Each structure stands twice: as C-alpha cells, then as structure tokens.
Amino acid sequence: MLLTVHDIHKTYQTADGPFEVLRGIDLTLDAGETLALTGESGSGKSTLLHLIGGLDTPDQGHIHLGNQDIATLDDNGRAALRRGTVGVVFQQFNLIPSLRVADNIAFQARLAGQHDPAWDATLAEQMGLGQQLNKYPEQLSGGQQQRVAIARTLSPKPRLVLADEPTGNLDEATATAVLDLMLELVTETGAGLLMVTHSSALADRMSRRLHLRSGQVA
Ligand SMILES: Nc1ncnc2c1ncn2[C@@H]1O[C@H](COP(=O)(O)OP(=O)(O)OP(=O)(O)O)[C@@H](O)[C@H]1O
C-alpha cells in the first residue's frame, strides 16, 4: 500500500477553546489510484492533506508512506519527503517570479537531486508549455501558470501527489483540460493522487471518492 492513514485526530486551539477538526480518519491509497476528497467547507479536507504532506503533525494516529511512519521524521526528514516523494499542488501557484518557466518546473526536482531534463521536456510538451519555457510567470495566463505549478510538482516523479483544489482558480474548460493532463501524467508515472475538490464532476473522474463530514469519513 502506498499510503495508509489510520485513526488520525487533530485539534486546533481556538479563542473559543479546543476544536477537534479531524476525529478518527482512516484511508488507504494504492500506487496508480486516484482518490477525490470531498466534503463541505470546514469539514477538515485541507487539514488532512497538510498532515499527509508532512506540513503539520497529527495529535493521534499514524500516516505511513510505504513502510515509513512520517510521524517519526524530523523537520529535515519531512522537508526531504516534500521535495521528492510527495508532491503537493495548491490552489495558489506559488511560482518563483524571478525564475523562467523552465527553471520553475525544474526547481523542486533540482533540490531533491532528481532532475531529469528529458522528463521535464515531456512534461512541458504535454502541458502545452513548450513555447513558454523562456518566459517569466507574470507573462503567462492563470491556466498556464497552474500548468507550470503542476509540472513542477510532477518533475521529481513523486510517488504520491496531493492536490488541494488545483483547478479552483481556472474556468471550467481549462480546469477539465488541466485535470485530464494531471490524471494522464500521474497514471504514466504510477503515482497515487489524492485531490481535494468541491466539484462532483471532477470527483467523478477519479477512481474513488472519500467524503468528509465534520472531521469523519461519511
Ligand atoms: N490553524 C488553525 N487554527 C484554528 N482553526 C483552524 C486552523 N486551520 C483550520 N482551522 C479550522 O478547522 C476547520 C477545518 O478547516 P479545513 O481548512 O481543513 O477545512 P476544509 O474542509 O479544507 O474547508 P474548505 O473546503 O473551506 O477549504 C475549519 O473550521 C477551520 O476554521
């Protein structure tokens, strides 16, 4: 199993006292599988994605990537995980304005020591960015910028791709096209994909769906 999440609990301290946002989440994801994470606003989807991505730690429960319990990793270990093994795509593109498109795409793969120029060329071509490689992010449309962000995430060939509303900023036609590409490329690399989405249409394109309600699997 690529990803095993067992009995995850997370409580935030708020001005009104403790708020338990995740209340015992279990999920599994195999290599090559795509899972849509749906649920109302505030149900805990982003929190869960952050925990799986090692951006935060659960209060209780376990998250295994392959045989590795990510709770046992220190900050450096979690940072290394995010550079190479787990790729994260957020709604905000977070491209580096001073770097050309080609260098933005290669950025994380270079940090992880996993840069493969031939794979980057394939990604750029399939994402329709072949003519944009020498441009800077500000010279691109929103849809193009999001495709650069996705290519950057896929460049180190992560085993697990986590995406939080990755097409939320795009119009419907562009969102569908970008999701198609993402599914194709994830399938091509045999990675697993866990994607938060509010769109039922997008969720229907994935192999499975998990619905959260008030911090539990509905
Ligand atoms: N750092 C924090 N401190 C306190 N409360 C938080 C924190 N982060 C999130 N929350 C609260 O936890 C709940 C779940 O937030 P989360 O972002 O995981 O939900 P979500 O399902 O992703 O929502 P959305 O679909 O609106 O993005 C919300 O009520 C939110 O206000």
Write structural notes for this entry:
With 218 residues, the chain is of the alpha/beta class. It has a single domain (31-57, 73-217), classed as 3-Layer(aba) Sandwich (Rossmann fold), CATH 3.40.50. Helices cover 35% and strands 28% of the residues. It has 7 helices and 10 strands. The strands form 2 sheets. The chain has a 6-stranded mixed beta sheet with strand order 6-7-8-3-9-10, sandwiched between helices. Helix 3 (101-111) packs parallel to helix 5 (142-154) and helix 5 runs parallel beside helix 6 (172-189). It starts with a strand and ends with a strand. The model has no long low-confidence stretch (mean pLDDT 91). Residues 12, 14, 19, 21, 39, 41-47 line the site of adenosine-5'-triphosphate. Residues 3-218 form the ABC transporter domain. It holds the Pfam family ABC_tran. Belongs to the ABC transporter superfamily. Macrolide exporter (TC 3.A.1.122) family. Keywords: ATP-binding, Cell inner membrane, Cell membrane, Membrane, Nucleotide-binding, Transport. GO terms for molecular function: ATP binding; ATP hydrolysis activity; transmembrane transporter activity.
